[in-house]
Amino acid sequence: MKINVLTLYPEMFPGFLGYSLAGKALAEQKYQLNVVNIRDFATDNYKSVDDTPFGGGAGMIMKPDVLDSAIKATYSQGDIYYLSPRGEVFNQKTAHAFAQKDEMTFICGRFEGIDERILEKWQIKEISIGDFVLSGGEPALLTMLDAVIRLLPSVMGNKQSMSEESFENGLLEYPQYTKPQNWEGRLVPDVLVSGHHAKINAWRLEQSIALTKTRRPDLWTSYLAQKKD
Ligand code: SAH
After folding, report:
1. Is 205 strand, coil or helix?
2. Among protein residues, the one whose CA lies closest to atom 18 of ligand 1
3. What kind of fold does domain 2-149 have according to CATH?
4. In whole angstroms, what is the distance from residue 73 CA to residue 184 CA?
5. Distance, CA 205 to ligand 1 centroid (Å)?
6. Whose CA is nearest to atom 5 of ligand 1?
7. DSSP 3-state assignment of 82?
8. pLDDT tens digits for 94-111?
9. 108, 172, 181, 208: least surrounded by Cβ within 10 Å?
10. pLDDT number for residue 159
11. Cα–Cα nearest to 14, from 100, 111, 121, 143
12. Lowest-confidence range among 10-14, 46-50, 161-165?
C-alpha cells in the first residue's frame, strides 16, 4: 500500500507510526509513506502557501494553485482525501475499507482550511476523526493510519484478537484480566479460570452487551438493526 501525504509539516511523519507494530511494518515495507511538502510548490519569493479569505473573517486559507501543483506532482491513482471536521467520520469500518486500497492520497489542512475549488476540481473526499477541531490534519491522519496499518494483511500477528476487539463485532470489548489472579484482594471472575470455553464465551458476550448498552446506546441500536437483517 502506498500512502501519499501532502502536508506543511513533513517532519511530523512518520511520527508515532515509526514505533511498535506500525513502525515494524514500515521498516519491513508493508506500506510506503510518501510525504510531500506543500511549501515546495509555492511560487512567490516568500514561499506563501496561504492567503486571506474572500468575504473577510479570521484566519488564512491554503491556496488552491499551490495545492494543485502539489497534487499534480504526487497523484497517480486512487482516492484523494482531505482531513476535515466537515468530513464523514472515520470508524473501524472505514479502517477496513482503507486497508484494502493500493494507493491513497491525503491532504492535511492547516490554518482555517483549504480553498473549496481544489476539493471540486479533484473530487476530493473529506474525512474527519470526530466532532472536534484540531489545529491541523496531521495528527488526525496519523491516528487514522495507525488504525488502518494494524489491519493490513501480515501486519497484525494475532487474527483472533482482532476479530474480538471493540467495534469488530459491533460491540465494545468485554473486561480483560491477566496475572496475578488475586491482586490486592481483587479476584479475577471465576468463569475465566474455569477452563470452560463455552461458558467463557457466553460471559464475554454478556459483558460486551451490557457495556455497549450502557456506554454506547447508539452502537447497541445499530447492533440490533444489523442482527435483524
Ligand atoms: N475552519 C475549519 C477548521 C480548520 S482546522 C472548520 O471550521 O471546519 C485546521 C485543519 O485541521 C483542517 O484544515 C483539517 O485538515 C484539520 N482538522 C481539524 N479538525 C479535524 C478533524 N476533526 N478531523 C480531521 N481533520 C481535522
Report:
1. helix
2. 134
3. Alpha/beta knot (3.40.1280)
4. 60
5. 37
6. 135
7. strand
8. 999 999 999 999 999 999
9. 181
10. 66
11. 143
12. 161-165
Q: Is 85 in the pocket of ligand 1 (CB under 6 A)?
A: yes
The alpha carbon of 131 and the centre of ligand 1 are apart by a number of angstroms equal to 10
pLDDT for position 158: 59
Mean pLDDT of 172-197: 98
Q: Model confidence over 155-170: pLDDT tens digits?
A: 976 566 677 788 989 9
Binding site membership of 129 for ligand 1 (Cβ less than 6 Å): yes
Whole-angstrom CA distances from 64 to 13, 43, 50, 52, 83 are 23, 12, 9, 12, 16
Domain definitions of the chain by residue range: 2-149, 159-228
pLDDT of residue 229: 78
What is the CATH architecture assignment of 159-228? Orthogonal Bundle (1.10)
| pLDDT reported for residue 23 | 97
**CA 127/CA 81 separation, integer angstroms:** 7
Residue with cell 486497508: 99
Ligand 1 atom nearest 82 alpha carbon: 15
Task: For residue 90, report the distance from its CA to the centre of ligand 1, in Å.
Answer: 14
Tell me what the mean pLDDT of segment 41-52 comes to: 98
Q: Is the pLDDT reported for residue 48 higher than 90?
A: yes
> Taking a C-beta distance cutoff of 8 angstroms, is the pair 84, 123 a contact?
no
